[in-house]
Design a protein that fits this description.
A 6-stranded parallel beta sheet has the order 5-4-1-6-7-8, with helices on both faces. It has 10 helices and 8 strands. The longest helix has 15 residues. Helices cover 43% and strands 15% of the residues. 42% of the residues are buried. Strand 7, helix 9 and strand 8 form a beta-alpha-beta unit. The protein is of the alpha/beta class and 215 residues long. Helix 1 crosses helix 4 and helix 3 packs across helix 4. The chain has 2 domains: 138 residues, HAD superfamily/HAD-like (Rossmann fold, 3-Layer(aba) Sandwich), CATH 3.40.50; 60 residues, DNA polymerase, domain 1.
Length: 215
């Protein structure tokens, strides 16, 4: 069983906040609804779309807003989204060391795979796991599903939100929070990750080279 590192996608591997926010705001603006910004918008990111719209625009047809968002986002999701600096190199280095690499995201699997492919990350990943009807993070289900899909043993959950930290801990993994994404360092600190860093760079030294184990 390969040791497996599970990553969140948006805000962890990909700098995608601008495109997510643009699509979210587009849908609300078209519906004549107020736009959450700043901390209010950051609090929504990482939640399921229906919950995002339910929180941002109570007493509206959230499913209609979700569908409108998906149409707009699929057409614009790579307008400004790019991997964070050093991410492709980090993933390649981890694979060379013998780690399996999986994504566990709140996105649907098909959308996440499309985004990972468009940004050049898909060939560097062993599996991309969307929530797809599973309980969303902070529940551990999507993290566990990602680990099972590669037949691995989870060693670390890497994410940029408190939801990622709680999901990783619930799945029994070491938790590594990166503060270059959605949640601020003080928010992440309150979730008590095992490691809190401004970038992913220290992850290589932290994980090292895994010791061989019988499967």
């Amino acid at each position: 069983m390969k040791p497996t590192v599970v990553f969140d996608l948006d805000g962890t591997l990909l700098d995608s906040l601008a495109d997510i926010t643009a699509s979210f705001h587009h849908v609300l603006r078209e519906a004549g609804l107020p736009l959450p910004t700043g901390d209010a918008m950051a609090d929504l990111i990482g939640r399921p779309l229906a919950e995002m719209f339910r929180r941002a625009a109570p007493e509206t047809d959230e499913q209609a807003l979700v569908q409108a968002y998906r149409r707009h986002y699929l057409a614009h999701m790579t307008d400004r989204t790019r991997p964070y600096p050093g991410v492709p190199e980090l993933l390649a280095a981890l694979r060379r060391r013998g780690y399996a690499l999986a994504v566990a995201t709140t996105k649907r699997t098909a959308t996440a795979r499309r985004l990972a492919a468009a940004t050049g990350l898909l060939p560097l990943l062993d599996h991309v796991q969307g929530t797809d009807g599973l309980p969303p993070k902070p529940a551990p289900d999507v993290v566990l599903a990602a680990t099972r899909a590669v037949g691995g043993r989870g060693v670390c959950m890497v994410g940029d939100t408190t939801h990622d930290v709680h999901a990783g801990r619930a799945a029994g993994l070491c938790t590594y929070a990166v503060s270059w994404g959605t949640h601020r360092p003080e928010q992440l600190r309150r979730a008590e990750p095992d490691h809190l860093e401004p970038t992913l760079t220290p992850l290589l030294d932290l994980l090292g080279t895994p010791e061989p184990r019988l499967s």
